[in-house]
Design a protein that fits this description.
By secondary structure, this protein is α+β, with helices and mostly antiparallel strands. 51% of the residues lie in helices and 13% in strands. The strands form 2 sheets. Strands 1-2 form a two-stranded antiparallel sheet. A two-stranded antiparallel sheet has the order 3-4. Strand 1 (82-86) and strand 2 (92-97) form a beta hairpin. Residues 107-119 and 121-133 have low confidence and may be disordered.
Length: 133
């Protein structure tokens, strides 16, 4: 009977230890994931602001080719599938599309892992952040 009780206590101890270990690993992975997502978001915000700054001159001089050239630099960012510069009236001034990106999906649905950082409205005279930041 003592052996049976010892076996049950051992099984219970191992079960509790396994549960605590899995819980600790899960919490750790969750925190690491959140930190990585926050860092990715911040990098995309910076990238968006740099693009907006670089596109200001092209818009000021109404140079669609220069705007397309600035957007073409996004080919180095494999996670960018589509970028557009829209005019105040909603017309597309310049566009970049990377259909070869591993994140590109069919036109029927949004790519998995889409991260929309900020909407930036750039007019001929000003650039303003629509997100209010």
């Amino acid at each position: 009977m003592t052996q049976r009780l010892d076996r049950r206590v051992s099984l219970l101890t191992v079960s509790i230890a396994t549960f605590v270990t899995v819980l600790a690993i899960s919490v750790s992975l969750g925190l690491a994931f959140r930190a990585t997502m926050a860092e990715t978001y911040e990098l995309k915000v910076i990238q968006t602001r740099v693009l907006g700054s670089n596109l200001t001159a092209a818009l000021a001089f109404n140079d669609e080719t220069a705007a397309a050239d600035v957007l073409a630099t996004l080919e180095n960012a494999r996670d960018i599938v589509l970028a557009r510069v829209l005019l105040g009236d909603g017309r597309v001034f310049a566009e970049y599309r990377n259909d070869l990106s591993p994140f590109a999906a069919s036109s029927q649905r949004r790519p998995m892992g889409t991260l929309i950082t900020r909407a930036v409205c750039i007019t001929n005279s000003t650039a303003r952040d629509l997100a209010g930041g």
